[in-house]
Design goal:
Blueprint (H helix, E strand, L loop, with lengths): L2 H15 L20 E4 L3 H13 L3 E7 L6 H5 L2 E6 L10 H11 L3 E3 L9 H9 L3 E2 L4 H8 L1 H10 L7 E2 L6 H11 L3 E5 L9 E3 L5 H16 L4 E5 L4 E10 L5 E13 L2 E7 L6 H16 L5 E10 L5 E7 L6 H8 L3 H9 L16 E8 L1 E2 L5 E2 L2 E2 L2 E3 L7 E5 L6 E2 L6 E9 L2 H13 L2 E3 L5 H8 L2 H4 L7 H4 L1 H4 L6 H33 L20 E9 L7 E10 L5 E4 L8 E7 L4 E6 L2 E12 L2 E8 L2 E7 L26 E3 L4 E6 L6 E2 L4 E7 L2 E6 L4 E4 L8 E2 L4 E6 L1
Parallel strand pairs: 1-2, 1-4, 2-3, 4-5
Antiparallel strand pairs: 6-9, 7-8, 7-9, 10-11, 10-13, 11-12, 12-15, 13-14, 15-22, 16-17, 18-21, 19-23, 20-22, 24-25, 25-26, 26-27, 27-28, 28-29, 29-30, 30-31, 32-39, 33-35, 33-38, 34-37, 35-36, 37-39
Helix pairs in contact: 1-11, 5-6, 6-7, 13-14
Length: about 725
């Protein structure tokens, strides 16, 4: 690359990174018959915060809506005004069209931005806005109707000559009829709701005997998420890539594309890493894909932001229309990063009647961007959503090439009612490798404690050789599961993890000692100040203490490991930390506390910046430590006391929760939506017993063995917590 080309790329990237502060439009408002001055945001979480940020930059006042569960949420605090719209279940709040319209009328807003999810793809809601003389910041109701119904959209695209995946897209929903259609298509097939997105309600069915349960489950999940249970069937492509094109249209009839995104890496049919542009595609392929997307949008007279999704058969190289999302996508920031435009601003201005600021040939293109979705979820349990309090939430620092899109703060609760996404980490680099390195570095510094997350898994995934080479497809996680997941004991990895945990525990112990010593010193009576100095004064010997720390070695079958750490206060203010091994010389550690959570630690000739976060839960202190690219989690079941060698400490009994063999516990917090057997009934191994729903996702709880169900007392509509007893099996 020439020096001039590199300078031009850097100039474009500078433009890219300041879009949040500076309007990129040269057009003005004065030609509009109506000017948007106040917007109701009919959404929650990070997308509501994202819209508020752009609206504020444009001088537009914002109105938030919230359910009882979100009363103190970040989007409510960020908006100029906020109105309660109902209880936590979405159907009574964020899906309550009349309540949101009422808020718009009460607040004097001229427009409603639906964000993504909830009502964003409801043609009825878009029409209702129009009927109430409110601008819907999105496409026309007719386009949502045509493209939001996946069956109708397939028919429209087929008529327009866009290649389709073989399938059934009709109105008939009788289960016996659908089984016959599935037989005609040929297994494996994909069952998919005709409305909505996010992978909710999708089922892969490998054989006819799986069809009925999968079909009924998909209908229930679709009804809970989108308010309609209509299903379509498609041939399941066995080695697909998911590539989508960002399109944008104005009310003057202009439509352009803003290049493509690859969203192939998914779990539970939901994306976790997206990137733009798609890796390993030719310019010719990119051009054909973009033109097909524009043709799709023109077929329904589209305006505003939209995404045309294609499934690419990696075996044949052919692409097929999958669906069109008539809204802003979760992953829109990666497109913003490579084209240097604010797509929310574009939406607002197009809704206001302004033309697109760029023609297709003017659309810039610079570098590469990744988005990693950080979820509260339990990866070892099959990515089941998790709930809990964010006792520690410290995202990475936002820079010119790093964005953090979030709707939560430290201390917030991730509830069972909504999607468990905590944040989106978005990074830009001059090329794919640079962006990938930056993403992994940022993930290692992204601090979340209080509930399980997928951060470590994303790091492992992004470090995989195939991902680094851009060899992605939708079965990536399944294909490389042996590399990405821990299956059974691994002695070598277990030993490495043990060594790393002992090093981290030593640092934790020294930091805790430093913090507690400072607190004791501040509280000590003047005459006893010497006894709480650094080091604490003792007669004829050094002060010592011990602490027991528990940790989980995922590479071992031993479960919880107990690590006894001995700390000696040395005369020079350092700590000698030993981990109970007679052949270990221990570590001399110097600690300087920088703030409540941050420390500077010198150990083994290294100076490290260390962060500690601690909180109590279920009578156990949880301690998290981050330093370098390491992160560890320890549990402490007893208080710490400075003591001398001849002193004894009464240690409290261990707190343990255990159930008899054969007990089935709730794998996640959720709502019981179906109980399929009766207490005392005989069941076979693998037989569904009940269905839980959390965050609009269903999870079927099955019998782990043959036996008789005992103690099944939960009822439909009952909320259950993660880890509680659901029932037991008896011979």
């Amino acid at each position: 690359m020439s020096l001039m080309a590199l300078i031009l790329r850097r100039k474009l990237h500078t433009k890219n990174l300041i879009f949040q502060q500076t309007s990129l439009y040269s057009t003005s408002w004065h030609n509009n018959s109506q000017r948007i001055e106040k917007i109701v945001i009919a959404n929650r979480g990070e997308i509501a915060c994202r819209i508020i940020r752009t609206a504020k930059r444009l001088g537009i006042r914002t109105v938030a809506v919230y359910s009882d569960a979100d009363r103190d949420s970040l989007h409510v605090k960020s908006a100029d005004e906020a109105f309660r719209i109902g209880p936590p279940p979405a159907r009574f709040s964020y899906l309550n069209s009349s309540a949101i319209i009422d808020v718009a009328n009460k607040s004097g807003a001229q427009a409603i931005h639906p964000g993504y999810g909830f009502l964003s793809e409801s043609a009825e809601f878009a029409q209702l806005c129009e009927d109430e003389n409110l601008l819907f910041i999105g496409p026309p109701a007719s386009a949502i109707r045509d493209m939001g119904d996946k069956s109708a959209s397939k028919r429209i695209m087929g008529a327009a000559g866009v290649p389709l995946v073989p399938g059934y897209h009709g109105d008939e929903q009788d289960i016996d009829f659908m089984k016959l259609e599935a037989d005609k298509i040929g297994y494996p097939i994909l069952i998919k709701p005709t409305h909505g997105g996010g992978g909710k309600g999708m089922r892969i069915v490998q054989s006819p005997n799986e069809f009925t349960d999968a079909f009924l489950g998909a209908q229930r999940e679709a009804a809970a998420s989108f308010g309609t249970s209509t299903i379509l069937l498609e041939k399941y492509i066995t080695k697909p890539r998911h590539i989508e094109v960002q399109i944008f249209g104005d009310k003057q009839g202009n439509i352009i594309h803003l290049y493509e995104r690859d969203c192939s890496v998914q779990r539970r049919h939901q994306k976790i890493i997206e990137e733009a542009p798609a890796p390993n595609v030719s310019s010719d392929f990119r051009s054909h894909l973009g033109q097909a997307a524009i043709s799709a949008a023109k077929a329904v007279n589209y305006h505003s932001a939209g995404t045309v999704e294609f499934i690419v058969d990696t075996l044949s190289g052919q692409f097929h229309f999958m669906e069109m999302n008539t809204r802003l996508q979760v992953e829109h920031p990666v497109t913003e990063m490579i084209v240097g435009q604010d797509l929310v601003e574009w939406q607002i201005r197009v809704a206001n009647g302004e033309p697109l600021p760029l023609t297709q040939s003017d659309v810039p293109f610079s570098g590469h961007a990744f988005e990693a979705r950080i979820y509260a979820e339990n990866v070892p349990k099959g990515f089941l959503p998790a709930t809990g309090v964010l006792h520690r939430y410290c995202p990475v620092t936002v820079t010119s090439a790093v964005r953090v899109e979030t709707g939560v703060e430290e201390g917030d609760t991730v509830s069972m009612h909504y999607d468990p996404m905590i944040a989106k980490l978005v990074v830009w680099g001059q090329d794919r490798l640079s962006a990938l390195i930056k993403m992994k570095d940022c993930l290692s510094k992204f601090q979340v404690a209080g509930l399980p997350t997928n951060i470590d898994f994303i790091i492992k995934l992004a470090s995989h050789r195939a991902f680094q080479n851009g060899e992605v497809e939708t079965h990536f996680i399944e294909q490389y599961k042996d590399d990405l997941f821990v299956e059974g004991a691994n002695p070598i990895s277990a030993q490495e993890a043990d060594s790393s945990a002992k090093h981290a525990a030593s640092i934790v112990a020294a930091c805790i000692c430093q913090t507690e010593l400072a607190k004791l010193k501040d509280k000590a009576p003047g005459s006893l100040h010497l006894w709480y100095g650094n080091p604490p004064f003792r007669v004829h010997h050094f002060a010592k203490r011990t602490m027991d720390l528990e940790w989980e070695n995922q590479y071992s079958n031993s479960g919880s490991n107990l690590l006894t750490v001995s700390i000696t206060y040395l005369p020079d203010g350092k700590y000698l930390v030993e981990t109970g091994e007679s052949n270990s010389p221990g570590l001399e550690i110097q600690v300087t506390q920088l703030s409540n959570n941050d420390y500077r630690v010198e150990v083994d000739g290294l100076s490290l910046k260390v962060c500690l976060a601690a909180y109590f839960k279920d009578q156990i202190e949880h301690i998290h430590i981050w330093y370098g690219d390491s992160q560890h989690h320890f549990k402490q079941r007893m208080g710490l006391e400075i003591h001398d060698d001849d002193e004894t400490i009464d240690k409290p009994a261990r707190v343990a929760t255990s159930y008899p063999s054969g007990t089935v516990i709730a794998p996640m917090a959720g709502l019981v939506v179906k109980v399929l057997v009766k207490d005392g009934e005989k069941v076979q191994e693998g037989q569904p017993v009940l269905v839980l729903e959390a965050m609009k996702m269903e999870h079927v709880v099955k019998a782990p063995a043959n036996g008789f169900v005992s103690g099944l007392e939960v009822k439909v509509g009952q909320s259950v917590q993660d880890g509680i007893k659901l029932f037991a099996l008896k011979d």
